[in-house]
Amino acid sequence: MHTFFKRKIIVVMATLLIFTLGNVSGLSASSSLKEIKAYLDESIHIVVRGIPFIANDDEGKPLTPINYNGNIYLPLRSVADATGMNVEWDDSSRTARIEEYKNNINVSESKYMLKSNDNRVQITLPGDWEKFAEVEVQDGFTLSANFNDRKDFLAIVREKKDDTKSKSLNDYSINALMGMKSRISEELISKPIIQGFPAKQYEIQALINYKRFVYLITYVETKDSFYKVILYCTQHRYNQVKDVYKDISMSFKEINNN
């Protein structure tokens, strides 16, 4: 492959891998580094499981693929996130370890399966939440419910890709966050793979009627849709249930995409 973007760059690489690591601390001039000439190639398009993939750095900024001697280089961490793998960097030995991402979905020994009325999505909750469940029908929500005497709230929102201006999961999550006027702060805490699809999970602090709440919002991109899986409660309660919330979010499943 020899279709190059016209702008030349100088790239410093420790090793010639098909995928590069992205941000790696401790890079300095040493005998292990070799200076090369390569090209930023904006003609390259990546598709993962039928979904266009754009590599991003740790701050979410798009990264252009690098073309060097006909090989394409992308950040290893970004590619691993998109394909369900986990990357850990050991700076002392300068070693990248790649392992399969494990979803520890174990909300409890007994489980409660909740499906939307249109049979489009389902989610798994702790079994002892079923007797406290109040499932609601609300416009704009695929699924909405509260549990444990209105201490825990769940909402799932679906938007067809054709109905949004977002071209990627990153665009969709940023636009959705900007629309949360009550938020005080947000933190990207993980980029899991859910049902084989890429996701971004945020922990959001919000102030509503002078009361602090914490939202765990997981944005999921499927072939034709974007989803928001929202779990929230008071800040005090969140410290008790945040691990349960994470497991519930990971259990999200699109069962009908028609």
Automatic annotation (TrEMBL):
Recorded superkingdom: Bacteria
A Pfam family of this chain: Cu_amine_oxidN1
Domain Copper amine oxidase-like N-terminal: 64-122
InterPro entries with a match to the protein in the record: Cu_amine_oxidase-like_N (IPR012854)
Protein name (record): Copper amine oxidase-like N-terminal domain-containing protein
Organism: Paenibacillus allorhizosphaerae
